[in-house]
Amino acid sequence: MFILPDLPYAYDALEPTVSAKTFTFHHDKHHKAYVDVTNTLVAELGLEGKTMEEVTLFAAGDKSKKKLFNNAAQSWNHAFFWDAMIPSYAAPEGELKAAIDAAFGDIAACKEKFVAEGVGHFGSGWVWLAAKKDGSLVITSTHDGENLLDQPDLTPLLVCDLWEHAYYLDHQNNRKGFLEAWFDTVANWSLAASQLSAAKGAGAVWAYPAPQ
Ligand SMILES: [Fe+2]
Q1: How many structural domains comprise the chain?
Q2: Cα 152 to ligand 1 centre (Å)
Q3: Which of 3, 57, 79, 83 is the most buried (most CB within 10 A)?
Q4: pTM here?
């Protein structure tokens, strides 16, 4: 059985960028439903004991397993998204800052590209800051539940949810305003730094909690 990981902060810790009301729906209803459906399908298919990463990749690209893929990938994406936010914002520094400067020019240009990618993404999905194995950074987006697990050259550093349920209660249809506030106030650059190190072979990449 996969658990629904607790939020790593209080429900109101990221206000006003993300309200407690949004988390009450987004974590307790949306994310819980993805995990519950994944657990049901995993049991039906005899996949107990496999990690969330393994289940997601098992179902990826197989039309007959689309429901399993959508729910496992969305379970993974949301758990990573909770960890990609932090109440005590601290700007990137050191190796991470150098990688951002090399890829985009500076943090402001990185923000501009991240926000533009998210605003330009049609419909539901996710916007990612990711690292290649050589440590260079890219910004990309994926549709619906899709993520980067099937792109082994890319390690996600940060992700922001582009589904309307992520921002509609707090920002209505202003996806751009949500992304700008998200980037400036709650992005977890500490997670991004550890993921960048892992991308280059130092330490473990972030993983969904192991099944229990
Ligand atoms: Fe979501």
Answers
A1: 2
A2: 23
A3: 79
A4: 0.98
